[in-house]
Amino acid sequence: MRALVRGTGSIGARHLRVLESMGVDELYAWPVRKGTGSTERADIPSRTVFVDTYPNAPLDLIIIATDTVRHVDDALGAVEQNPRSVLLEKPVAPTVQQCRPLLDHPRASIVSVSAPLRFHDGYVELAQLLEQEGTPTSAQIVSQSWLPSWRPGRDYRQSYSARSDEGGALRDLVHDIDYPLALLGTPDTVVARLGRGVLGIEAEESADLLWHSSGKEHPLAVSVRLDYVSPVKKREIRIATAHSALSWNVVTNSVIVERPGSVPELSVHPGDGDVDNVLARQSGTLLQRVGVVVDGLRHEYNAASLQAGVLAVAVCDAARLSDRTRRGETVVL
To answer: Which ranges carry the Gfo/Idh/MocA-like oxidoreductase N-terminal domain (predicted)?
Structure first.
């Protein structure tokens, strides 16, 4: 196996470590900032070959882990190398309009968007339960954390998260928009209110969304709370059906099924608590899809397509527009 990671920030470095643990034979890193070598980075595998262009050898996987504003250009450059697969970190781009050149590329089908929550066994169990328990009637999603603790030792006000053109709670927490879309379907309209003023950054610090969709059998209302102004982390979804309530807690890696008159059923997935393990499932699924044999993967793991990643960006676009217009907005791709 041969893989390259474009971008060597904290996420890029983690991808490199994960790929090494998976036994990738040849590992390349292409930093955005020149002069970053392996001797300077203890968090990058020592056998990584640093490059300043794509190698001549064919690549099985290219991972794009650069700043959001660079994603589309860097992904286009990767696709032109004709690798077997490309994994693009979230979000695809700051807006749907900026996604268009990548969507329109003739080889766009080889691009997947990083969505590690889809590779949690808790998510797989929830998806299976949802099929068994019937049509959902409502859902509530919460994702709360504390931005100053995200990157210890670095001023969060100087990070991309603080910038309104590529950061903010909507884009940073887009994973928590992606997986509800995968479970519950595309909204018809989105109403949103964005919050600022706690952290002193120009981007939104919180977002409250209410979206409606026609649903399979009846209308479905979904509420979403995203913020990084909460020192106590919370990340979960609760879905009501006509027969039960289903909950997935990402912090405790647990799924709970509640039915009237019955004792709640609890299952725990400790392997989901290892971020590297989850990322290995994601990269392994992409490699397996193009013919590389990877052991230990569940067939239920399903990577997010480029189109799915753009849909999540479209919901973010609709939310920002709704906050400005103070009315419900449609999701436009």
So the answer is: 2-105
Give the span between the Cα atoms of 53 and 166, in whole angstroms. 25
* Tokens encoding 200: 């002193």
CATH architecture of 2-116: 3-Layer(aba) Sandwich (3.40)
Tell me the helix, strand and coil percentages in the chain, rounded to 5: 35, 25, 40
- 193: closest CA among 333, 325, 331, 330? 325
- Is residue 215 very low, low, confident or very high in pLDDT (cuts 50, 70, 90)? low
Paired tokens of 324: 């400005």
Structure tokens that stand for 325 in this block: 């217009």
Average pLDDT on 16-35 reads: 92
Distance CA 7, CA 50 (A): 11
Strands ordered across the beta sheet of 189-195: 265-268, 254-258, 245-249, 229-241, 136-146, 220-227, 206-213, 189-195, 329-330
pLDDT (tens digit per residue) in 30-45: 999 876 665 578 899 9
Fold adopted by 117-269+304-330:
Dihydrodipicolinate Reductase; domain 2 (3.30.360)
Would you say 90 and 310 are in contact if contact means Cβ atoms under 8 Å apart?
Answer: no
